[in-house]
Design goal:
There is one protein chain. By secondary structure, the chain is of the alpha+beta class. The protein folds into two domains: 104 residues, no CATH class; 101 residues, no CATH class. The chain has six helices and eight strands, in the order ααββααβαβαββββ. The strands form two sheets. The chain has a six-stranded antiparallel β-sheet, with no helix packed on it.
Length: 221
């Protein structure tokens, strides 16, 4: 959606450029446009999408300070600078529009959104008393489409571990080498439950828990 916004801005900039009798220098117009994008913003996270509300046109003010004593330079490149600032609102609209589209393309309740490419997947033991199990990649690949989202009982899981005499970690393994669905830029950490049937997926914004019918560990049931 960001690329689409830049295409739209480029079309507007070209229309502005065509209106000049004496054409401004193209690269200077592009620089003025890029400087104009800089602004003081208020950031807000909405369902994992970073929304930036532009408040003050810092780039426009900077360019004005540079060009105000250089003849007609400011009046020549001012429209491109302001276009850069208003471009922030175009990016805002595309961000808001990308939310519903992202939910369709990358549903949060589907494990394949977070784990799609598993060719180089493996598990590592992150808790010493855990067993030295290995990942059954065939089972993982087969069950991705059928894994169901479950509830996260953080407090209950914590106290069950603390109260246990063995102090068993519920998620002693971490899944590495996998990638999310193509086109989504999301950093995730995936923990594997000790029975091999549960995956706890941690993103910068939320946590998700999925269960499989069969163990994802080699030798598991």
């Amino acid at each position: 959606m960001g690329a689409l916004g830049w295409v739209f801005i480029g079309v507007i900039a070209y229309q502005i450029y065509k209106k000049y009798t004496v054409k401004p220098t193209k690269w200077k117009a592009i620089v003025a446009n890029l400087i104009g994008v800089f602004s003081f913003t208020i950031n807000w996270n909405m369902s994992g999408i970073l929304i930036k509300f532009p408040i003050l046109p810092l780039g426009v003010w900077i360019l004005y300070g540079i060009l105000k004593r250089r003849g007609d330079s400011w009046s020549t490149y001012r429209p491109f600078a302001w276009l850069g600032f208003w471009a922030n609102f175009i990016f805002l609209l595309t961000s808001l529009g990308s939310g519903p589209i992202q939910q369709v393309l990358y549903p949060q309740n589907n494990v394949s959104t977070y784990i799609s490419i598993t060719d180089h997947a493996a598990i590592i033991k992150i808790y010493s008393p855990g067993k030295d199990d290995s990942l059954n990649k065939e089972n993982l690949h087969k069950q991705l489409s059928s894994m169901k989202q479950g509830n996260i009982y953080s407090e209950q899981w914590y106290y069950s571990m603390v109260d246990s005499k063995k102090k068993d970690e519920r998620f002693p393994y971490q899944l590495i080498g996998s990638s999310p669905k193509f086109g989504i830029d999301l950093k995730t950490i995936v923990y594997v439950e000790k029975d091999g049937k549960g995956l706890l997926i941690v993103t910068p914004y939320e946590q998700f828990y999925f269960r499989s019918q069969n163990s994802l560990l080699r030798g598991g049931n």
